[in-house]
Specification:
alpha/beta; D-Maltodextrin-Binding Protein, domain 2; 3 domains; 11 helices; globular; Hydroxymethylbilane synthase; hydroxymethylbilane synthase activity; Porphobilinogen_deaminase_C_sf; EC 2.5.1.61
């Protein structure tokens, strides 16, 4: 009988969508699988802001523990939630082809207030990156913490007297919950690896690693590596206002844009670089080193002290 691959996943609707996507890809390659839902610490505490929890790996460490203990064979994550330094003996098995990368504002009534310089809007998000970029553009607005899975956050938005809340487009679209009253924030640079899904496994599990090679998307893996290298080199984590986006442009060139911002949006360092895909592996680290020479470490430290 063929070996069955146990796929570990969080229990939210979005996490299950991601796990089912990996399951479908494995089935298409001829493998037998079973899903193993596991509740993470990040799903249990929906009140405390992420930056107060010590967010590094909060959505991944429970699955990592299940993986290392042999309870599951593969863990599926949103890649932006995965720490840049993975636990010992756990490796990336595959990065799926990337989905939408942008952020959306889900609003109530209308967004005419975005054109009014003196209007004080109330916007909800738990992301320090989104808060920083929003305050840089709208310094008079009030930001509110918003935790929970996609469904919970949409319900919370409806029940609170807020003007809107910020979501990742991928999260809403993948589970069919993008409302008509949503506008893409094309000026907001995404989190490193936003929109990407990763499957990880034990380093010594050759069977699972081989199984996942069938759906690894090399361009997405390269681009998200560049973004995460930028984050790692800046010594930032999920709670630091660091943004990065790399994509394949013309002639197989990789276009990279990165940014580090203070929590209140008043200090920003940005960088844009291009390299051919064959030489772009270290593009993110190189860009980060340039920003460090320009004082990025001080902004990162400011962000940590603010938390």
């Amino acid at each position: 009988m063929q070996q069955q691959i146990r796929i570990g996943t969080r229990e939210s609707q979005l996490a299950l969508w991601q796990a089912h996507r990996v399951q479908d890809l494995l089935h298409a390659a001829g493998y037998s699988t079973v899903l193993v839902p596991i509740k993470s610490e990040g799903d249990i505490d929906l009140v405390t802001p992420l930056y107060e929890i010590g967010v590094q790996g909060i959505f991944t460490k429970t699955l990592d523990a299940a993986l290392l203990s042999g309870r599951i064979d593969i863990a599926v994550h949103s890649l932006k939630d995965v720490p840049t330094q993975m636990p010992k003996n756990i490796v990336t098995a595959a990065v799926l082809e990337r989905g939408p990368v942008k952020d959306l504002l889900v609003y109530k009534e209308d967004v005419r207030w975005m054109q009014q310089a003196d209007y004080v809007a109330h916007i909800a998000t738990s992301s320090t990156r989104r808060k920083a970029q929003w305050l840089r553009r709208f310094p008079q607005h009030q930001l509110h913490n918003l935790r929970g899975n996609v469904n919970t956050r949409l319900q919370k938005l409806n029940s609170e007297p807020w003007n809107g809340a910020i979501f990742a487009a991928a999260g809403l679209e993948r589970i069919g919950l993008r409302p008509a009253n949503a506008v893409e924030l094309d000026w907001m640079l995404p989190a490193p690896a936003q929109g990407a899904v990763v499957a990880v496994c034990r380093e010594d599990d050759k069977f699972s690693r081989q199984a996942c090679t069938s759906f690894n998307h090399a361009p997405t893996r390269l681009c998200t590596h560049i973004e995460r290298d930028f984050l790692r080199t800046l010594m930032g984590g999920c709670t630091t206002p660091i943004s990065a986006y790399a994509y394949v442009a013309t002639n197989n060139n990789i276009q990279f844009n990165g940014e580090v911002c203070s929590p209140d949006g008043t200090q920003t360092l940005t960088i844009a670089r291009t390299a051919h895909a064959t030489t772009a592996y270290d593009l993110g680290a190189a860009a980060a080193k340039i920003l460090l020479e320009q004082g990025a470490a001080d902004i990162v430290t400011l962000s940590r002290n603010a938390q």
